[in-house]
Design brief:
Largest sheet: 5 strands, mixed
Number of strands: 9
Low-confidence stretches: none
Distance between the termini: 12 Å
Order of helices and strands: EEEEEEEEE
Strand content: over 45%
Number of domains: 1
């Protein structure tokens, strides 16, 4: 599975049922298990924060990291960003949603459904982005 970032897309998607999903992406600028938002106007924002380390004997590493003072900052981004999510269906399957967004001059310039959009995932199978 690997690492991925979380992305919320406020930019209008072609499918209303997919608008408010939390997406994952492996194509964000600095893959680090962080959070991003694509604004309604098409800008990409990153949740920036300060990190504080605290000793903790119960932790496997002997410490835990805390994120503090979070704020949303614009990202200087050009190129392709793929986002994807799956949603549980009444019959126990999951429906796959994926979108490709192209950024030019730090704004969404084009958007289309990904190749696997709409695929149905049956229980016991694992879906990875193409």
């Amino acid at each position: 599975m690997g690492m991925f970032d979380h992305v919320r897309c406020r930019y209008p998607l072609p499918d209303a049922e997919a608008q408010d999903l939390e997406y994952q992406s492996k194509s964000t600028p600095a893959l680090s298990v962080d959070s991003y938002v694509i604004t309604s106007k098409g800008s990409l924002l990153h949740e920036d924060y300060e990190t504080r380390m605290e000793k903790n004997a119960d932790s496997m590493l002997g410490f835990v990291l805390h994120r503090e003072n979070s704020r949303w900052v614009p990202v200087d981004f050009r190129g392709e960003l793929e986002i994807h999510a799956s949603v549980g269906q009444a019959d126990g399957t999951r429906k796959w949603y994926s979108y490709l967004l192209w950024f030019k001059d730090n704004r969404v310039a084009d958007l289309q459904r990904g190749n696997s959009w709409g695929e149905i995932i049956t229980p016991g199978t694992r879906k990875e982005p193409a």
